[in-house]
Amino acid sequence: MLGNKVSRQKPCHHCKNRSAAAPPDTSTIHYEKFWLYRHCSSVQQRDRQAQKAGQLFSGLLAMNVVFLGCAFISSMIFNHMAITLAEVWILLSILKVLCLCWIIYHLLGTSRQPHAVLHRDSHAGPLWIRGSVLLFGSCSVLLNTFQIGYSAILIQCKSKVDILFPSIGILFICTQAFFLLHHSKDCVQVQHNLTRCGLMLTIATNLLLWLLAVTNDTIHMEIESQLREVEQRFAGKAPFSPPCSCNETTSCTCPNTTICKVFQKGYILLYPFNTEYCLVCCSVLYVMWKNVGRRISHHHISPAKPKFKLQGVVFGPLLGTVAVIIGICVFMLYQIQATGSIPNHQVFVMYYSYYIVLLPLMSVAAVIGTIIHALEKKELDTLKNPTRSLDVILLMGAALGQIGMCYFSIVALVATNPMDLLNSLILSYSVLLIFQNITQNVFIIDGLHRQHTSSSKEEEMKEEQICEGYDQRRVSMMELGQEIRKVSLSYIHTYSKLTWKRRALKEISFFLVLCNIILWVMPTFGAHPAFENGLEKSFYGYSTWFVIVNFGLPLGVFYRMHSVGGLLEIYVTA
After folding, report:
1. Are the C-beta atoms of 180 and 213 separated by less than 8 Å?
2. Helix (H) or strand (E) holding 119
3. Which residues cross the membrane (predicted)?
4. pLDDT of residue 220
5. What's 189's DSSP letter?
6. How far is Cα 548 from Cα 93, in angstroms, rounded to an integer?
7. Is 188 helix (H, G, I), strand (E, B) or coil?
8. Residue 446's pLDDT is what?
9. Sign of torsion, CA 521 523 529 532?
10. Burial 368-386 (b: 16+ CB within 10 A, else e)
């Protein structure tokens, strides 16, 4: 049993003389006494053993919960008559309620205790992560709202669990988002074991929600069957229905009303956001779990990072803006033509051609940036940083989603007809995407481990004096022109003062930031040619390719978003 009392045990026989001579330190935070640990040789060793034991048992708790959930979901897939989707939803609803109880207790109890949070990790929960939690959480709430509306319209063939599960999901998403936005940087110093177990339970729940979202294609199959039925009616063929159907399909058919079509379209459009939300929450919760009981000494506190300033770069923003504008045009044309009843073949050619032009440019930029990192010969930052370690793991893990999809596409295309124009474009796109992910990962990871370069104080003083004029007073039109001229001169001065290596790193990182943003926007807001072109879907089958796409697509979106954060840090610290 995990104890929750603060350890006040007597020192051991070998440490008694030293502890008697030392004055009591009231500022020292004692870790909880763990039942597995009985003997000590020093205070630091006792604290370290208690921390490792608490992480071990909380990890075992999460592992058992994940295995139980995986068993339920796998049984539902392979034997849906014995384990139904409703029973899986009931299990996940119980886990959500348990997580809600712990989060509310932590917000109202643990975090308000004296000395509960004495340290905050400055690297944890950056702005872009919190913004992602807010964005994807809002989209997930809308997704559950559409699911409730869709199930309410078809209430004659839906159970109450179809409405209860997304209702609990909305409450869980809102509470978890509030918790992560306000406490992602906390290093909790009280109730270590309970906090670790609560965080691991929440991580396990989010992982199971992500796994279910990847494998559950129930509503997608309903919509797909309805579309096939409509196409058969337009073709003048009566849809085949087996004698034992008992009108189940007709009773669950969405009425020809606008509201039902809105719920269907909104559900399909927002579906990737839910899986993305689960992945982002898992990453933030893992950092919080690593920070439980962590004590940050003053000499380990990293210096304040320089602020983001659009100075010293010209060609990177220019080329990146061109790539973004062209990408938006391609995305709009794709959305107009590819989402119709009969997708146009040319729109897929245009979409993949854009990627084939952009991906080599990004790969070359990343390779040049890596070479410049090697030429700079900066010392590596060897300080312990759980957030940076997690960033590296997430970059490598999230890239596996796109790389895995590309290899499945390569096998399907080579086995069918690789000489066809569209097939050859998809094949080239898959190979280039694998190479681009690898080169960009090397560039970002190498840049994150380099020590930061501090700018000179004189430049910062001049820039602050120029910027203060806008904040302190209103300026007339003549004064405004003078200030703009000063800012322009300061921009040119800063650009000329930078060394060619730092200038090139800033140009490359900003170009890659804009490219990753447009490559994040296109699949996030509905451009899914891997599922809509029908080539891989006809090769692997609907259900198999659905699982592959829903596994790889959210990881690919997460990779682009996570890459933007790493590239911005390289740009700021270059």
Report:
1. no
2. strand 117-120
3. 56-77, 89-108, 128-151, 163-181, 193-213, 268-289, 310-334, 354-372, 392-414, 426-448, 508-527, 539-559
4. 59
5. -
6. 26
7. strand
8. 83
9. negative
10. bbbebbeeeebeeeeeebb
- The pTM of this model reads 0.70
Other Cβ atoms within 10 Å of 401 Cβ, number: 22
What are residue 380's DSSP bridge partners? Answer: 450
Q: For residue 24, which amino acid is it?
A: P
- 454, amino acid identity: S
- pLDDT in the model for residue 236: 54
Amino acid found at 148? I
The amino acid sitting at 393 is I
For tokens 């659905």, what's the residue?
Answer: 546
Write down the H helix ranges in 2-126. Answer: 16-21, 43-78, 85-108
- pLDDT, position 208: 94
What is the residue whose two structure tokens read 């003048």? 236
452: left (phi over 0), alpha (psi -120 to 50) or beta: beta
Name the β-bridge partners of 87. none
CA atoms within 13 A of residue 21's CA, in its CB half-sphere = 3
d(CA 399, CA 17): 55
Residue spans of the domains in the chain: they are: 47-232+254-294, 309-452+492-573
Long-range (24+ apart) CB contacts under 8 A made by 111-119 are 111/183, 111/186, 111/188, 113/190, 113/191, 115/29, 115/189, 115/190, 116/188, 116/189, 116/190, 117/186, 117/187, 117/188, 117/189, 118/29, 118/187, 118/189, 118/295, 119/187, 119/189, 119/294, 119/295, 119/296
Which run of H or E residues covers position 120? strand 117-120
- Name the residue among 374, 549, 369 with its Cα closest to residue 441: 369
- Burial degree of 340 (CB within 10 A; 0-12, 13-18, 19+): exposed
